[in-house]
Design goal:
The chain has 561 residues and is an alpha/beta fold. Helices cover 49% and strands 13% of the residues. The strands form 4 sheets. Strands 7-6-5-11-12 form a 5-stranded parallel sheet, sandwiched between helices. The structure holds one RNA strand of 77 nucleotides.
RNA sequence: GCGCUCGUAGCUCAGUUGGAUAGAGCGUCGGCCUCCGGAGCCGAAGGUCACAGGUUCGAAUCCUGUCGAGCGCACCA
C-alpha cells in the first residue's frame, strides 16, 4: 500500500468517527510545493454535512489522526480548511525503492473487477489507403487498449472490415473503369465511385497479373473479380500499414461474416420478439426513441434491403455474444451523430452499458504555416504511410496521442520534423537516453542497479525529492488515463517528468555544480543517485512503451545539410 | 432550426472530475555557452479562462442564455 493509500484509509476512518460514513476522501499532491506532499479537502467536504466551520473540523481530524503511523512528518491546517501533510524522508525513499523493485511492472495495477474488453478501431472501408485521420484513430485505439491492459483488463484489438454493401460494388466498378481506360476504352468512374490515383496503379497491377482472364470475362464477372481482388489487396495494405505503424490487431472481423452467418435476420427477430420493431410506410423500424434516441430508425428499407444500421447492430450484438463484457469503439467525428442510436439499439437488446464510443476529431496538417490540403474527393490525400515515413513512427504516434482526441488537432509538421528537444517526443526520449548514457559512463548495467546496496537517504537535494514524488505518481497517472480513455494524460506526464529530469541533469553539469552530478566521486552518494537515475529511466521507458514508442539508449540526430 | 464537440497566453494545448496565486511547450525579450550559425542552459514578460447571469464556503470546471468554430441531423454508408 502506498503512503497516500494508507493515509486515505486513516482519514476515512476518522471521517466515520466524526459521523460521516462513506465519504470519498480526496488526497492529492498539491501543485504548490509549499502546500506539502499531500493535501486533503476532507474538512471542507464535511463542513456541509456536519454544519460546522471547516477549519474547526480540520483541527479535530488532525487530533484524531495517527500521523506517525502514516509516515507523516508534519501536518497543518491551511487556507479555507485544507489539511497539508508533509511525509517523512523514509516514505519518500521507499517510493523510489518501489520503482526499482517493480521495474517493468511499475505503473501496472489490478482492477476491482477484471473485464474482458474489446477495443474496435480504424475499421476503414477497404476502398482506399489509410489516411492521416485513420492514423489518429489507430494511435488512440492502440494506446487505449494498452492502458486498459496496464490496468489489469483483458483486451482485444479489432478491425471491422466493411466489405459488404454498395461502396464495395463502387470500388469494383471504379477499378473496372480504370482497367478499361488502360485497355484504351473511354470509361468513366461511376457516380459515387473512387477517383484516387491508387486505382490506376492497381489496374496496371491486376492486368499484369490476370490480363488473359480479364479479357475473357463478361463485364459482370469482371467487376466481381476486380472487386474481390481490390478488397483483398487493400485489406492487406491496411494490415501492412498498421503493422509498420506498430499497431497489431488481434482480429479482423468482416462484415460479410455477419451476413453469411445470418446474424442480421437473427438480430431482427430478437428485436421483433421484444416488441421493439414496427412496420411503417413499407419499412421496418426500430423503436430507438424508447432508449434515448431522438427519432426511430429504419432497419429494413421499403425496397427490402437493409440499412447500414442493421448489420451494425448485429455486429455489436456479436461482440457481446462473443464474451466481451465491454466494448469501446473509436469513431471519426463524422459519425458522432450515430452514437445515440447505436447505444439505443444495444439497450434494446439488453446491453445498456455495454458500449463506449470515443470520438476522434479531425486532423489538420500544417507545414510552414500553411495547411497541407487533404482532399479526398479529388482523390489526392496525405496517406498515413506518407506521414509516418516522413516523421518516423514514434513522432507520428506521439503527435496523435498528445492531444485530447475529442478536440480537433493541428499537426505541426515543422515541429514534428524538428530533432531538437523542442519536439516533445525527443524531449522525452532524450531524457531517457541521458539516463542510459549515465549508466554507460558509470560502467553499470541498468538492471544491476538495485536498492539493497544503495543508501537512498543520501538523496537530500530538494530537486531529488521532487523528482521522486513525480516518479511515484506514475501508477496513478496510468489509472487516470485508462479511466478517462485519454492517453494524452500520459504524454503530459512524460513531458513534465522529462522537463524535471533534464533540468536535474543539467544542474549537475561539471561547469556549474559538479557536486550535483550523478557520477560524483563519493561512492555511496553516487550509488544513491544512480538508483534515482534508474528510477527515472524505468518510468520513462514504461511510459514510452505503454504508448507504443521506443525508449532509445542513445539519440542519433540526422545531420541536416 | 435541432443535436454533438469545442472556445484558456501571440500560436499549439494541459488543467488531477468543484479547490489554494490558472500551467506547459513553441514564439518573443534579456543573460550564458559557441570561431560564426544552429542546438543547448538560466531567467523574464505575457490571461476579463468567448460573453452575461445562476448554483456555494469556493467555478476555467456544474446549470441557463447569448456569440463564435467544426461536425452531424437519410428508407447513404
Amino acid at each position: 500500500m502506498s503512503p497516500a493509500e494508507q493515509l486515505r484509509a486513516r482519514l476515512e476512518r476518522v471521517a466515520a468517527e466524526l459521523g460521516a460514513d462513506g465519504v470519498d476522501v480526496q488526497l492529492e499532491r498539491p501543485r504548490n510545493p509549499e502546500h506539502g506532499d499531500l493535501a486533503t479537502n476532507l474538512a471542507m467536504v464535511l463542513a456541509g454535512r456536519l454544519r460546522r466551520a471547516p477549519r474547526q473540523i480540520a483541527d479535530e481530524i488532525l487530533a484524531r489522526l495517527d500521523l506517525e503511523g502514516a509516515g507523516v512528518a508534519s501536518a497543518e491546517v491551511a487556507g479555507a480548511g485544507f489539511i497539508n501533510f508533509r511525509l517523512t524522508g523514509a516514505v519518500l525513499w521507499e517510493q523510489l525503492a518501489r520503482v526499482l523493485r517493480e521495474d517493468r511492472a511499475f505503473g501496472r495495477s489490478e482492477p476491482e473487477d477484471r473485464l474482458r474488453i474489446q477495443v474496435e478501431f480504424v475499421s476503414a472501408n477497404p476502398t482506399g489507403p489509410l489516411h492521416v485521420a485513420h492514423g489518429r484513430g489507430a494511435a488512440l485505439g492502440d494506446a487505449i487498449a494498452s492502458l486498459l491492459r496496464w490496468t489489469g483488463h483483458e483486451v482485444e484489438r479489432e478491425f471491422y472490415i466493411n466489405d459488404a454493401g454498395v461502396q464495395i460494388q463502387r470500388l469494383g466498378e471504379s477499378l473496372d473503369a480504370r482497367w478499361r481506360q488502360l485497355m484504351g476504352e473511354e470509361a468513366a468512374i461511376p457516380e459515387g465511385g473512387y477517383h484516387g490515383a491508387y486505382l490506376v496503379d492497381m489496374a496496371r497491377e491486376v492486368d499484369a497479373e490476370a490480363h488473359d482472364r480479364l479479357v475473357a470475362m463478361s463485364a459482370e464477372e469482371r467487376v466481381a473479380f476486380l472487386r474481390r481482388w481490390a478488397v483483398e489487396r487493400l485489406e492487406a495494405e491496411h494490415d501492412r500499414t498498421l503493422r509498420d505503424f506498430r499497431v497489431q490487431m488481434d482480429s479482423y472481423y468482416p462484415e460479410t461474416r455477419i451476413y453469411e452467418e445470418g446474424r442480421i435476420a437473427e438480430t431482427l427477430r430478437e428485436l421483433a420478439d421484444r416488441g421493439l420493431t414496427y412496420e411503417s410506410e413499407g419499412a421496418v423500424w426500430l423503436r430507438t426513441t424508447a432508449f434515448g434516441d431522438d427519432k426511430d430508425r429504419v432497419l429494413v428499407k421499403s425496397d427490402g434491403t437493409y440499412t447500414y444500421f442493421a448489420p451494425d447492430i448485429a455486429y455489436h450484438r456479436e461482440k457481446a455474444r462473443r464474451g466481451f463484457q465491454h466494448a469501446i469503439d473509436i469513431w471519426g467525428a463524422d459519425h458522432h451523430g450515430y452514437v445515440p442510436r447505436m447505444k439505443a439499439a444495444l439497450a434494446a437488446l439488453g446491453y445498456p452499458d455495454f458500449l463506449d464510443v470515443e470520438i476522434v476529431q479531425m486532423v489538420r496538417i500544417m507545414r510552414g504555416g500553411e495547411e497541407v490540403k487533404i482532399s479526398k474527393r479529388a482523390g489526392e490525400f496525405v496517406t498515413l504511410r506518407e506521414l509516418f515515413e516522413e516523421t518516423g513512427v514514434d513522432v507520428a504516434r506521439y503527435f496523435f496521442l498528445m492531444r485530447r482526441s475529442d478536440a480537433q488537432m493541428i499537426f505541426d509538421l515543422d515541429l514534428a520534423l524538428d530533432q531538437s528537444e523542442k519536439n516533445p517526443v525527443y524531449k522525452v526520449q532524450y531524457a531517457h537516453a541521458r539516463m542510459m548514457s549515465i549508466f554507460r559512463k558509470a560502467g553499470v548495467e541498468p538492471s544491476s542497479i538495485g536498492v539493497e546496496d544503495a543508501d537512498l537517504s543520501l538523496l537530500r537535494e530538494p530537486v531529488e525529492g521532487e523528482l521522486i514524488k513525480q516518479l511515484a505518481e506514475f501508477p496513478a497517472v496510468v489509472s487516470r488515463a485508462a479511466e478517462a480513455r485519454a492517453p494524452h494524460i500520459v504524454c503530459d506526464y512524460l513531458e513534465e517528468t522529462a522537463g524535471m529530469v533534464n533540468s536535474w541533469y543539467h544542474a549537475g553539469n561539471p561547469s556549474r555544480n559538479p557536486e550535483l552530478a550523478v557520477l560524483v566521486p563519493h561512492p555511496a552518494l553516487r550509488r544513491a543517485r544512480l538508483a534515482l537515475a534508474r528510477g527515472v529511466q524505468i518510468v520513462l521507458r514504461n511510459g514510452l512503451e505503454l504508448l507504443g514508442l521506443s525508449a532509445p539508449d542513445r539519440m542519433q540526430r540526422e545531420e541536416t545539410a
